């Protein structure tokens, strides 16, 4: 059996620490829950923290959030596909948008549902994922701001999401200046400049965050406490909100190299023989988890003496060496997780989820 545990006290500790930082700097923020993949057990824990704004990239997840906490402001954080527009208007109070034709359809649907839908216009700042080109922003805004049923409440940008372009003070100043351009051209004050994400948090502590950036969307830092510039844990944060464990279902002393004619395995991997290992053996454990659930590269064994060999669809192979810890069949091995590993496991219906006080 494999289990993903969320530690309630560690989550609350990280939330309280971040909330105090943002309150001190008068920054509005919301929690990104796309990592949780709509898992109600964990969503309830996040909502119990007292946050007033939740961000997600799946309408189905926002629907669950609205059912659990109708008064929480929900934000859909990617450009809308046409077929999802009715549900986006119904379950998302705010959405990130970059396409004028889609915003017109959102406007029409908002009118049908007798709502005002708030949008944040995302601006391309170099990472080349979603975003309106800066030179086109004034013309774009001119086509949007008077549409019925639509209220532009922010300008935003993403960093380090595709090509690894990191936020800098200069880039964030540039983003905040777009708000001034809109004000000068249309005499309209846009409330938010949403340039803050987990990757930008270190700039707060080095006093490189422009005052114009007044809205943050935080996921990874809350759950993993990670400084994405250094790869280390942010001061005051707990990196182990999540813990993954899997049961040993076989344990035997086996040769360290395979025997027989080798070909690519089902994952397309080919192995080369290390001749120095001929005749040597090691204890190998098979765990009850596999590629259907997680890529092994996102697992971090808590026992640093373990060596992850690889995985097939439903089994993970771990080398125990001489097995000095005396592991046995039925024991659980515990792992910390990287972000993408937690995302995979949370999206797997084969993994049990638990909350630990």
From TrEMBL:
SUPFAM superfamilies: PLP-binding barrel. Gene3D superfamilies: Alanine racemase. GO terms for molecular function: alanine racemase activity. InterPro entries: Ala_racemase, Ala_racemase_N, PLP-binding_barrel. Its cofactor is pyridoxal 5'-phosphate. It comes from the Bacteria. Its EC number is 5.1.1.1. Residues 9-225 form the Alanine racemase N-terminal domain. Keywords: Isomerase, Pyridoxal phosphate. This is Alanine racemase. It comes from Pontibacter ruber.
